[in-house]
Design brief:
about 120 residues, mainly alpha, Arc Repressor Mutant, subunit A, two-stranded antiparallel ribbon, 6 helices, globular
Length: about 120
């Protein structure tokens, strides 16, 4: 199976469309570039039907410390990508920005399906 490297919908004027939002996109990609933050977001995405996750639940599923989990959530919340809702003494976190969910869905499709092998020559 040959994967197309650039989508046919990627128009020649895409650079001009992206230019005003490039910093926002770069900030998001930078946040996703940390493996633990990516895993944290994936865990939140998988918990959407259950109303999100608490810090304790995220710690248990990701293996991250409380300090690191809280630090990552604070950054993601400050960017507006994650929201927090207090339920008594607990706080539940969920993905707030639907673009994050869409992007994570695309990443899952590209990297987490057995039918999508790692391209030859790719750095590991």
């Amino acid at each position: 199976m040959h994967m197309q490297t650039v989508p046919s919908s990627f128009a020649a004027d895409a650079l001009e469309e992206l230019r005003p939002r490039a910093q926002e996109v770069a900030s998001l990609l930078k946040a996703l570039s940390h493996a633990d933050r990516l895993l944290l977001l994936c865990e939140l995405a998988s918990a959407e039907e259950r109303g999100g996750r608490t810090v304790s639940e995220l710690m248990a599923s990701t293996g991250l410390s409380q300090s690191l989990t809280s630090q990552f959530l604070a950054r993601l919340k400050a960017e507006g990508w994650v929201s927090a809702q207090r339920e008594g003494q607990m706080v539940r976190y969920r993905i707030q920005d639907p673009r994050i969910g869409a992007l994570l869905g695309t990443l899952k499709e590209l990297f987490c399906k057995p039918s999508n092998p790692k391209p030859s020559g790719e750095l590991s």
